[in-house]
Structures are given as C-alpha cells and as structure tokens.
Amino acid sequence: MKSFRSTSTAAVWFAVLLAGAIAGLAARAQSPPMGDGQHGTDHRHMHGGAPPVGHAASGQSDDPWQLVSLPDPMREHMLSNMRDHLATLDTVFGDIADNKFDEASKLLEERLGMSSLLLHHAAEMAPYFPKPMQDAGTSMHHAASRLSIALQNASVAQSFDSMREVSVAIHDVTSSCVACHAGYRIH
Q1: Which among 54, 111, 181, 185 has the fewest CB atoms less than 10 Å away?
Q2: Phi-psi category of 31—alpha, beta or left, where left has phi over 0 and alpha has psi -120 to 50?
Q3: Domain assignment of residue 105, given as a range
C-alpha cells in the first residue's frame, strides 16, 4: 500500500498540471474579439500548433468556437465568474497540497458547487446560452459538488483510494471547463 504522503504529492502535481491547463483556457476565453471578427490570439498558431481538426487557422466562418453574444453587463459578470472559478480552483489545489481538505471542500461547494448557483446568477444567465453550453456549466457545478464530497472523504480517510477519488473528481470539474471553453466564446 502506498503511503498517504506520496499519494498526496502525486495528487498535488496532478492538480498543478490541471490548474495550468485551466489558466490557459481562461485566458483564451477572456481574450477580446479582434477587429477582423476573430477572437483573441490563439497561441497554438503562434507556436506552430495546428488549428482544431477540420478548421482553418483564420476566418470567422472557420472559427471552431461558437459565438455567444451577451449584453455587456452580463458578459462582464460571466468573465468575473470564470475568473472566480479559476481563483477558487487555485486555492483548492493549494489547500489539497497543505492537507486542508475540509477547507478546500467548503470553499469549493460555496464558490463552484451546486450551492453557488444563486451567487453566480445562473438562472438569469442560462437563457442566453445554447443548451450544450448550459449543460457544460451544470455539469461543472455538479462535478464541483462531487469533488467537495471527495475532499470531505479524504479528510476522514487519508488513503491512496481517497486521493484517487479526489483526482477523478478534479478531472470531472476541469473536463466540464474544457468542454465549454473548447466550444464557445463570448462577446
């Protein structure tokens, strides 16, 4: 059986890698549209990366991200929410690294879990989103609540299996983020 210390370290490194991926996605989603109808700089193209399969590197009609238009105050609110989501995940990953599972669980549920929907004005925002985008958001909030529970379990039973469940739950949260950021941009 692996020690909890090495399991916790592995989970932290996994969390750090995920946080970096989320930060890149959040920066991408927050890039302002450019004057030619394209959105902000896509660093994959700058560094020789290929555009998504089946899409050209330029031109709005070839844009792989579906544009979701929001009134300015709602757009700013949504961007603020996404920044808060990222900051919350960053704090949660730090708490996991410090074995503060209960603190991480509480913060996660309050800021990202199903309990956070009123805070984020989800009911007012959702009608502006395509159904798959709504589903990705709902999936993320459900996954965050499941991660909160996994963190509570890890606080009680600090084992390899409990940390594996935390890692699976982290992946579920970030997969929802990735799905939304891969398919949509806001304006």
Answers
A1: 54
A2: beta
A3: 4-31+67-186
